[in-house]
Amino acid sequence: MSLRRLLPSTTFLTATALALACAGAAHAQTPAPVERLHQGNRTSENVPAVPAELLERLNRYQNTRGANFAGWTQDGCLLISTRFAETSQAHRVCAPLGMREQLTFYPEPVNALTVAPGAADGFVFGKDVGGNEFWQLHWFDLATRQTRLLTDGKSRNQSPLFSHDGKQLAYSSTRRNGKDTDVWVGGFPDGQARAVVTEGGQWSAQDFSPDGKQLLVIKYVSASESYPGLVDLASGKLTLFPVDGGKAAISDFRFSRDGRSVYYVSDEIVAGKPQEFRTLRRHEPASGKFELLSDKIPWDVDRVALSEDGSRLLFVSNEDGIGKLHVLSLPEHKEIALPALPAGAIGGVEFSPDGKRIALSINSATSPSDVYVIDLQARQLARWTRSEVGGLDSSKFVAPTLVRYPTFDKVDGKPRTIPAFYYRPAGAAAGKQLPVLIQIHGGPEAQALPTFNAAAQFLANELGVAVLVPNVRGSAGYGRTYLGLDNAEKREDSVKDIGALLDWVGKQPELDAKRVGVYGGSYGGYMVLASLMHYSDRIRAGVDVVGISDFTTFLNNTESYRRDLRRAEYGDERIPEMKAVFDRISPLKNAGKIRSPLFVAQGKNDPRVPYTEAEQIVKAVRANGQPVWFLMFDDEGHGFQKKANSDYFSAAMMLFLQQHLIGEGAAAQR
């Protein structure tokens, strides 16, 4: 059970900062003695031994796993990512429900699997060390089964992209100065890569022109701001495209196969009118012709792909967290009828090399991610993988319902509502109130989806806990306005949405408002701490995983290549007015207000939220006399990707919730 499924991104605390954190404690107490244990790669403090009975109950849930589509190989097989040991590795499947042939065998997970078209028979993959996210790209040759390092072994490299003939490879890298993410291109398989975009900021390659002479690129600033451009690979000239309205979210740039037009996704203004959602568009630079292709769908669009013969285009719309696949015939852009697909979130999706089939991953609340293939002419759907659910009866998994609860502000004179997925235990006894765990996603520009969540299933089916997964303001998927409602000085408005959810819980007869916990990772970890800061009288326990405890220390200590990206979302700590906001909302500086048991878990190699964010909040909250469990893994980064580590954390978290949220002993704390 990986942390990514549970949660679908230094300096030590100074004596001054600790003093500030403790000064606000209303009832400062002498901290209890801390029991610190080092066991292999794991450091824990005050975490009790997990009972064998709990480990046994958890075991089957921890042995669920999914499969994700990564690409079509030249022999018509599918490259997928799945786990059969400690980490996710590359596998090949050559028939519906066929044998999975494992290709890579590393102690670290592999990612960014990208199959080469053309003469080269193989794929590129990325791999880091201990979760540090300094990924190196490697080539795996399917003919010889040999691997070769493609990057420098030091910098951070990601987003590999082949030209359509497979003779060039583009990728993003911090190789030049360690701070900016440039675009590099090299001849493949033996050419030397060179930087072709060095403008500063975070750049990625989107698509090669059909003749391989030009490259579409995008500079990413934030979830609501990006800038596209075109690179002439011979001269190195970068031409930026104009952005209607000056600022917009733009993604998924693709050349038409005749090279005369581009397809892309954008929320730019149209005819002077602001757009809430990101729509699929087509533009012909020579004629100026412009078309909106998904304007009848009032939801965001992403995952655009074209068939190699140029006869079809696909895209996915995200409709209240459910992915809907659309296929258009070209050039008339007429929708092609598809077979019915399982409801869920759609992951990787791509045409087969001959354009006659589509492979895609589908992940639902009651089934881990699996890979399917659509035969477009026959309109038939075939399942190619059937992932394990630990021997459990999947018919008993809980499917969440989508609820919307009112929050503190209004839209058009009516209370704004916040969407949340509600996992209700199926076997709940009549008249007995259920304890509640609120799970808050990270990002903050992410979106909680109704995907398979082994922890939620265990909590609901085994421990009788209702799980609520809200998409508070600032979440993606609900329009441009909603995305920006928590920016900068409005940060705590999203915390008020959790307060409103507590109000909603109190009005549900089947839920126990006196037994509510909060859980979240990364930015969700900050939300846990902030919620405890404001609502400790209404929240019994909190679990913070790789969370931000103070935005100033976080921005000072996060890796340099991502610092400006985070300032664009959270605000700039170098501006005195913003620094004052950070001080006011800091859980670290308000640790005296946290009066509920807390569990903090962290990866030592985290480049996004340094481990010092965890250490400093643990010390500050303990200074109040509050019980704090602490867990850190030396070989993990921003989340726990190794099965043994994830399993241990999951077991420790369930024990923490049993003791401080669910059990009768928890009631005595109040």
Automatic annotation (TrEMBL):
Residue ranges of every copy of the Peptidase S9 prolyl oligopeptidase catalytic domain listed in the record: 451-661
Keyword terms, alphabetized: Hydrolase, Protease, Serine protease, Signal
InterPro entries per UniProt: 6-blade_b-propeller_TolB-like (IPR011042), AB_hydrolase_fold (IPR029058), Peptidase_S9_cat (IPR001375), Peptidase_S9A (IPR002470), WD40 (IPR011659)
Keyword Hydrolase in record: yes
GO molecular function, one term: serine-type endopeptidase activity
GO biological process: proteolysis
Lineage top rank: taxon: Bacteria
Signal sequence region: 1-28
Pfam families: PD40, Peptidase_S9
Residue ranges of coiled coil: none
Name of this protein: Peptidase S9 prolyl oligopeptidase catalytic domain-containing protein
